[in-house]
Write a structure and sequence with these properties.
609 residues; alpha+beta; six-stranded mixed sheet; six-stranded antiparallel β-barrel; 18 helices; 33% helix; binds guanosine-5'-diphosphate; binds magnesium ion
């Protein structure tokens, strides 16, 4: 399915021609009918002689409504440039043509309409002028078809020319990531919220979860229509009306993009290749304030020229555009820049997640050129390298690459060793080899430092290491599992080569402590780290602050267990008598056995679990 968009000066006969071709009056607003002038976008459709069905978007020609024209032109495949034979090429003929050129609309047909108003000589003169005007634009050489919407003369020729042009269009891209730039949002009684737009980049199905970007409002596709007919699945290229459950109309507006949740993101900074229009009255300067138009959206913007101080008419350069409000765009999308009265420039988006660049930095300019060079490997490597670790879904949302091209590029990079893949919950994560090495090195360094500071501890708490590396829990687990030199066990990480080892002084203190425990004496307090080490290594049992030599504790535990087996239960007083200790020690032992799930309380006594 393809979309034809009208273009041309106000009053040149665009809307009447659409009605003559389709039987549908595209001027649907009361105000449009009253003023006899198109204000906002109009929509119609048509079956061509070949049997192909196409959509038509009719745009306003008046310069006051050029932003509506831009919203419509953002999604078209083919231009129907309408020129009134009596008037000839006029200012918005040129401006619309410049916009089509900047948007890279490469196919078109010129309808030289109102043919009934002029003679053959005049018609030839105007046709020659049009040919000259098209020269050097994407529509150079487009067929010019004299016709009249009033008398219907030439309309068959026009349909044939449109049919031939549509037949030469490339198939619509399907990268499995549908986007619907919204051009209308309204409510229908009993149905709720409906949005319309031209679906691109993938199919949308009834039942799909959707998100409006920017803003992130979520809903579900309750119904789909194309050309007033119900469909279960809308394909890329179709004019689509989406009935959404879960989002109120008031929360939606022209310019937002409907997509599957998380698959399309909004950005307020983009890097672009831009070209100043050939007829620009003055140069576009560094830091110029403009209005940015892309898809059906617009936003105030500042243009930072990265390689020049100004761009002259017809010249191209690299720029970073900073937007006043975020827009949902993708790499490769086209855009137009306007000042209040003029279309000044336009071009293609190279990057939707750039850093702030130093101006005139050759490395930045080379990287941008690579972004547009369409070699997926370089683009993917660059995108992976922007952060230590990235999820597959994030890459897919950032890059305008078909899913299989992204996967193929990732596999090739992984096979070549340039990118490391980490499997974990929620899908694979990727890091450049350099970033993966840096993470492993940082972990090893952090552990070595930790072992030096705490040579008696078994290792560094995982939480602490993870925070140090600035990784989320799932990423940390996926990456940590690949470190061969690191042991992760019982909530701590340690270098594989590390084992806690006592110094001579510590060994002496520990020996003295154990000896005094064995003799039943009250040992001098031990530094907590050393005591923890002795407990960890199994030499002592720390029963809630009362320390026993391990062998003594085990013997008393066995006695308690045997007593319960014989008598069914044991009380604190019985335990004290049995063990020949004070009440405090007996209590500590019983509570430790509770903690170890050997016993449990039953009233005043304890029984086996
Ligand atoms: N004589 C004549 N008048 C036309 C023709 N097409 C349109 N018009 C008239 O031109 C005026 C503007 O037409 P419209 O379709 O609204 O122009 P738009 O602003 O380009 O959409 C209207 O009064 C139409 O009736 C035509 O082929 N012949
Ligand atoms: Mg009109």
């Amino acid at each position: 399915m393809y979309v034809i968009g009208t273009a041309g000066h106000v009053d040149h006969g665009k809307s009447l021609l659409v009605e003559a071709l389709t039987g549908i009056d595209p001027d649907r607003l009361r105000e449009e009918k009253a003023r006899g002038m198109t204000i906002d976008l109009g929509f119609a459709w048509l079956t061509l002689p070949s049997g192909r069905e196409v959509s038509i978007v009719d745009v306003p020609g008046h310069e006051r409504f050029i932003k509506n024209m831009l919203a419509g032109a953002g999604g078209i495949d083919l231009a129907l440039l309408v020129v009134a034979a009596d008037d000839g090429v006029m200012p918005q003929t040129r401006e619309h043509l410049a916009i089509l050129d900047l948007l890279d609309v490469r196919r078109g047909v010129v309808a030289l309409t109102k043919r009934d108003l002029v003679d053959d000589d005049w018609l030839a003169l105007i046709a020659a002028d049009i040919t000259e005007t098209l020269a050097g634009t994407t529509l150079e050489g487009a067929p010019i078809v004299p016709c009249s919407a009033l008398t219907r003369a030439g309309l068959d020729d026009l349909l044939r020319a449109l049919d031939a042009a549509v037949g030469g269009l490339p198939p619509k891209r399907d990268i499995g990531r549908p986007r619907l730039p919204i051009d209308r949002a309204f409510t229908i009684g009993g149905f709720g919220t409906v949005v319309t737009g031209t679906l691109i980049d993938g199919a949308l199905c009834v039942g799909d979860e959707v998100e409006a970007v920017p803003g992130g409002l979520r809903g579900r596709v309750r119904g789909l229509q194309s050309h007033r007919a119900k469909v279960e699945r809308a394909l890329p290229g179709t004019r689509t009306a989406v009935n959404i459950a879960g989002i109120a109309k008031g929360e939606l507006r022209r310019g937002l993009v409907l997509a599957h949740p998380g698959r399309v993101r909004a950005t307020a900074v983009i890097d672009v290749r831009l070209r100043a229009v050939g007829s620009a009255p003055r140069s576009l300067r560094h830091n110029a304030r403009v209005t940015f138009h892309s898809g059906a959206d617009e936003a105030g913007a500042v243009v930072r020229l990265l390689d020049e101080d100004e761009v002259g008419a017809g010249d191209s350069t690299w720029a970073q555009i900073r937007l006043g409000t975020p827009v949902a765009v993708a790499r490769g999308d086209r855009f137009v820049l306007r000042t209040p009265n003029d279309t000044v420039a336009g071009g293609v988006i190279a990057d939707i997640g750039p850093k702030r660049h130093r101006r005139r930095d050759p490395a930045v300019l080379a990287a941008l050129a690579a972004m547009l060079s369409e070699t997926p490997g370089e683009v993917v490597l660059d995108a992976v390298g922007r952060r230590p670790l990235v999820q597959h879904a994030t890459l897919a949302a950032e890059l305008t690459l078909p899913r299989d091209a992204l996967d193929a590029a990732l596999s090739a990079l992984v096979a070549a060793g340039a990118v490391h893949r980490f499997d974990g919950a929620g899908g694979a994560r990727y890091a450049t080899a350099a970033a993966a090495d840096a993470l492993a090195r940082e972990a090893a360094g952090a552990l070595a430092a930790y072992h030096r500071a705490h040579h008696l501890r078994g290792g560094m708490p995982l939480q602490q290491l993870r925070t140090r590396l600035e990784l989320d829990a799932v990423s940390f687990e996926a990456v940590g599992a690949t470190w061969s030199g690191v042991r992760i066990r019982d909530g701590v990480a340690a270098l594989a080569s590390f084992a806690p080892l006592l110094s001579d002084d510590e060994q002496r203190a520990a020996d003295a402590y154990l000896a005094s425990l064995r003799e039943g004496g009250t040992a001098a307090a031990l530094p907590p780290e050393l005591l923890a080490y002795l407990a960890q290594s199994g030499a002592v049992v720390d029963a809630g602050g009362i320390v026993f030599e391990a062998a003594a504790f085990e013997a008393m535990a066995a006695a308690v267990r045997a007593h319960i087996e014989r008598h069914g239960a044991i009380t604190l007083a019985e335990a004290r008598d049995l063990l020949g200790t004070g009440r405090k020690h007996a209590q500590a032992i019983l509570e430790e056995l509770d903690r170890r799930h050997v016993t449990r309380r039953a009233g005043e006594a304890r029984v086996l679990r």
